[in-house]
Structure formats: structure tokens, C-alpha cells
Write a structure and sequence with these properties.
It contains eleven helices and two strands. Strands 1-2 form a two-stranded antiparallel ribbon. Helix 5 crosses helix 6, helix 7 packs antiparallel against helix 8 and helix 8 packs across helix 10. The longest helix has 52 residues. By secondary structure, it is mostly helical. It folds into two domains: 151 residues, no CATH class; 176 residues, no CATH class.
């Protein structure tokens, strides 16, 4: 006879599948799909509520809600698995907001009265104080709180339209976040191509992009980012040659530019850590995390470019007192400093990103 107790020790029973047969999805999919599921429950309740509808407008509204939810679900399930496109997010959440507005127009008077404070909160967050829609909702909310009779059709329409305006304002704020993030990714790609081109230039023509120095005195050696070299044919105790007698480019290496760029990346990484530390917890969503990530990644190529530019400025004696660096360590050290100094430029981008994110602190 088969011993079921021993069988349990050798075989692991697989866990039951999720309800509906849907596997675990990415977080950016799960949030809208959960909202869609909740709204479909509300839709089912509205379909079960018997209301006289002689002209069929209610049925048309219910069908519209179904179409919006179907469009949103298809956008979530048919998009790229890991990173959605901006149009995909726009399609999903715009349809969800439209369905929520239509559901409010179909709800009963008691439910509309119960949801009036919720609509008031959304309107106050998204619309300015002088907005006529906000002023109308505030007046209706005051009447509801005072219990001044049932809602009229005009008041219901005002609440629905105000909610639609608030959702449109919120969608515009998210749209600005996505456009700014996409623009920053394009700039980051262009800066990265510039880094590659600069490193290739230094590799193919090391003398034209010379990052080496000849300390004075004694002047009998040349220091480069990749190492130090003695001047050929001149003993250390001999008199130092004139400045024009030694071409530092002949001692430069094909990896000097790449070495300075790597040092600049190290300096930029220090500022990236500080930028990540300033991220808010409520920004960690697919809508809002992509913009802080874009601003952080932009610092790396800009830091590498600023490191090369800074060493070139020192080489050209544009920085008083730093025309002659004494060692390779000093060159790399200044490259790290210039890499971190890119924050003087990119902090403007950080401020613009913070302004764009200030209007989307709450979930959509």
C-alpha cells in the first residue's frame, strides 16, 4: 500500500494559482488593475440598481464605463512587460479617470452625497482657489454638510464636471512629468555619446587632447593622468629646460581621457547618492520614479564631461594657481572635484524636476 505520509516528505504540492488564472505582474500593472477590479464591482452594483430610464441614457453610461475599463485593462496587459511606454500609462489612467467620473454621474443621491467630501478633496488638490468649478463644489459640499435637502440635477452635474476638470488637471501634471523625463533621457543619451566620442578622440590622437603637465620646478618630468614620465635625455640634476623645449603631448597616453572621465564619474556618483537620499517615499511609483531616476543618471555623463573640461581649463591656465599640477594623483583628484561640481549645473534640472513632482505627490 502506498504510504501517503512518506509521499508528502518527498513531493511538494505546488501552490494554487491566483484567482482568475493571472500570474504576478509588475507593480506598475498591478495598481491600475486593482483599481479596475474595484471599479467593476461598483459598476456591477449600479447595474443591479433598478432605476427608471425611459430614454436609455443610464444604459449608455453603463456601457461607456465598461468600455473605459476594458481599454484600461488592455493597456495594462498588452504593454511591454518591464517598462511601459508613456502612451500606455496615459491610456490606462485616463480611461480609469473617465470611468470614475461616469460612475459618479450614475450613482445614487445618497452615494453622491457620501462622496462629496472625496470630490472636494480632489478638486482642492488639483484646481486653483479662483476656479469656478472649485467654488461650486465647495458650496455644494457646504450644503451637503448642513443637510439642506437632496441634491439637484444641477448640483450633481456640477460635481461630475468638477471631478472631470480635476482629473484633467492631474493628467496634465503627470504628462509634464513624463515629457520632462523623456527629454532628460534624450539629453543623457547625447551626453553619453559625447563621452564615447571624446574618449575615442583621445585614444586615436593623444597629442591633440593633451591632459599632461610639466611641474615647475624642476621641470625634468611630465605627469599625466595615467602616470609620471621623466624627460628623455635630461638627468634629474641637470638644469630644467625651458617651457617650450618639452612637448608634454609626446608623453601622454591613449587612456588619459578615459581615465579622467572615470574619475569624473566617481565625483558624479557622490552627488547621485545625495540626490537619491532626497527622494520622497511617495515618488516611488512608475509615474513619478522615472523623473528622479532620469535626473540622477544625467549626472554621470555630465560629471565625466565636466571633469575633462576642468582639466583642460587647468591645462590652459584659466584657473589661477593651478596651471601646473605636480602628480597624477592631483590630476585625478581635481577630476573627481570637477565631476562632483557638475551639480552646479544639474541642480537647475533637479529644481525643475522637483517643481514637476510637487503636483503629483499623491497616487493618481
Amino acid at each position: 500500500m502506498w504510504d501517503t505520509g512518506k509521499a508528502r516528505r518527498f513531493f511538494v504540492v505546488p501552490p494554487p494559482p491566483r484567482s482568475g488564472g493571472r500570474a504576478n505582474l509588475a507593480p506598475w500593472r498591478e495598481l491600475p488593475l486593482t483599481v479596475i477590479s474595484r471599479m467593476r464591482t461598483q459598476l456591477a452594483k449600479e447595474e443591479c440598481r433598478a432605476v427608471g430610464d425611459a430614454d436609455g441614457r443610464r444604459q449608455a453610461g453603463l456601457e461607456g464605463v465598461k468600455r473605459h475599463l476594458q481599454e484600461a485593462e488592455e493597456a495594462c496587459l498588452n504593454a511591454s512587460r518591464f517598462r511601459p511606454r508613456s502612451g500606455t500609462l496615459e491610456r490606462a489612467w485616463s480611461n480609469i479617470r473617465a470611468a470614475e467620473t461616469d460612475l459618479l454621474s450614475l450613482a445614487s443621491d445618497d452615494e453622491v452625497r457620501a462622496r462629496t467630501p472625496e470630490v472636494l478633496g480632489i478638486v482642492r488638490r488639483q484646481l486653483p482657489e479662483d476656479s469656478p468649478q472649485r467654488q461650486a463644489v465647495e458650496e455644494i459640499a457646504g450644503n451637503v454638510e448642513a443637510g439642506d435637502g437632496p441634491l439637484t440635477d444641477q448640483e450633481r452635474s456640477a460635481l461630475v464636471r468638477a471631478l472631470g476638470f480635476a482629473h484633467a488637471a492631474l493628467g496634465g501634471k503627470y504628462r509634464r512629468v513624463r515629457v520632462l523625463a523623456d527629454l532628460l533621457w534624450i539629453v543623457t543619451g547625447a551626453a553619453t555619446l559625447g563621452l564615447v566620442a571624446l574618449a575615442l578622440w583621445g585614444y586615436l590622437d593623444k597629442q591633440s587632447l593633451d591632459l599632461c603637465f610639466r611641474p615647475q620646478p624642476p621641470g625634468n618630468r611630465v605627469v599625466c593622468p595615467t602616470g609620471e614620465h621623466k624627460v628623455e635625455g635630461l638627468p634629474p640634476t641637470a638644469e630644467a629646460p625651458a617651457v617650450t623645449d618639452v612637448a608634454t603631448g609626446t608623453y601622454s597616453s591613449t587612456l588619459d581621457v578615459l581615465t579622467v572621465e572615470c574619475a569624473g564619474l566617481i565625483g558624479a556618483a557622490l552627488t547621485v547618492v545625495a540626490a537619491v537620499h532626497r527622494l520622497h517615499v511617495d515618488q516611488a511609483t512608475q509615474y513619478k520614479f522615472r523623473l528622479p531616476l532620469a535626473t540622477a543618471v544625467l549626472k554621470f555623463p555630465v560629471g565625466a564631461l565636466s571633469a575633462v573640461a576642468g582639466i583642460v581649463l587647468i591645462k590652459g591656465a584659466f584657473v589661477p594657481g593651478l596651471s601646473d599640477l605636480d602628480s597624477s594623483a592631483q590630476i585625478l583628484g581635481w577630476a573627481v572635484v570637477f565631476g562632483a561640481a557638475q551639480h552646479l549645473v544639474t541642480h537647475i534640472v533637479d529644481q525643475r524636476a522637483e517643481e514637476a513632482l510637487s503636483g503629483v505627490r499623491r497616487p493618481p
